[in-house]
């Protein structure tokens, strides 16, 4: 009986389409209800499939949230690279500040997803795909520092201090911003925050 319901509930989707539909529904659920109010059943209902259908791709709610976090990291990487694409390729300082801007932009435009990616049920031992997605987003900052300081800088402590400082600055600002802890500044459109983020990144690496 369950198999019949599953097939009936998911008949509108091909196999790959079902996974994408579930992730889209999961993001909408997360944005609307937060992680505390998130459930597999309500996600399936939003996607228009039976409650058993998600099992084709996600064994439980944690697996679904981890799949959503993986997609979030992919989009974070894209957001950082898109910001970098707006500046002259040879301008290493601008490439680093653009990476920071993209990091914060993604966070403030995807608050619930950003919080999920760095906390909650996605923590602990994670699938290799999620780990790779997280590493890819971090590597955008790492590569930007290497471009600015020279690749050899990352062979020593000084280069990694710059990476750590830049990441701590943008990550800390992002959490303050999405938590509405920045007062008037984070009430402004993101473009009003851009110069502040750029200045923070420059200060972090002492430019």
TrEMBL record:
What superkingdom does the record give?
Bacteria
Q: Which PANTHER family match?
A: HTH-TYPE TRANSCRIPTIONAL REGULATOR RUTR, TETR-FAMILY REGULATORY PROTEIN
User: Which parts form a coiled-coil structure per UniProt?
Assistant: none
Q: Which GO terms describe its molecular function?
A: DNA-binding transcription factor activity; transcription cis-regulatory region binding
Quote the protein name from its UniProt record.
TetR/AcrR family transcriptional regulator
Keywords linked to the UniProt accession: DNA-binding, Transcription, Transcription regulation
Q: Which Pfam families match?
A: TetR_C_33, TetR_N
Keyword Transcription assigned: yes
Q: What InterPro entries does this protein map onto?
A: Homeodomain-like_sf, HTH-type_TetR-like_transc_reg, HTH_TetR, MT1864/Rv1816-like_C, Tet_transcr_reg_TetR-rel_C_sf
Top-level taxonomy: Bacteria, Pseudomonadati, Pseudomonadota, Alphaproteobacteria, Hyphomicrobiales
Q: Which residues bind DNA?
A: 39-58
Q: Which residues form the HTH tetR-type domain?
A: 16-76
Q: Which organism is it from?
A: Roseitalea porphyridii
Do you know which PROSITE patterns this protein is assigned to?
HTH_TETR_2 (PS50977)
Q: Does the keyword DNA-binding apply?
A: yes
């Amino acid at each position: 009986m369950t198999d019949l319901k599953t097939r009936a509930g998911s008949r509108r989707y091909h196999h790959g389409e079902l996974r994408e539909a579930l992730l889209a529904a999961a993001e909408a659920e997360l944005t609307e209800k937060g992680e505390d109010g998130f459930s597999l059943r309500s996600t399936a209902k939003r996607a228009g499939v039976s409650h058993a259908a998600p099992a084709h791709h996600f064994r439980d709610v944690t697996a679904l949230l981890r799949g959503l976090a993986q997609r979030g990291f992919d989009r974070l990487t894209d957001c950082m690279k898109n910001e970098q694409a707006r500046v002259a390729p040879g301008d290493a300082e601008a490439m680093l500040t653009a990476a920071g801007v993209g990091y914060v932009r993604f966070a403030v435009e995807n608050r619930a997803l950003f919080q999920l990616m760095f906390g909650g049920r996605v923590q602990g031992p994670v699938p290799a795909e999620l780990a790779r997605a997280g590493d890819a987003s971090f590597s955008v900052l790492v590569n930007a520092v290497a471009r600015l300081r020279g690749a050899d800088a990352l062979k020593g402590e000084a280069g990694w201090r710059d990476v750590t400082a830049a990441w701590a600055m943008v990550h800390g600002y992002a959490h303050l911003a999405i938590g509405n802890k920045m007062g008037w500044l984070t009430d402004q459109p993101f473009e009003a925050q851009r110069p502040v983020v750029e200045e923070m990144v420059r200060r972090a690496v002492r430019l």
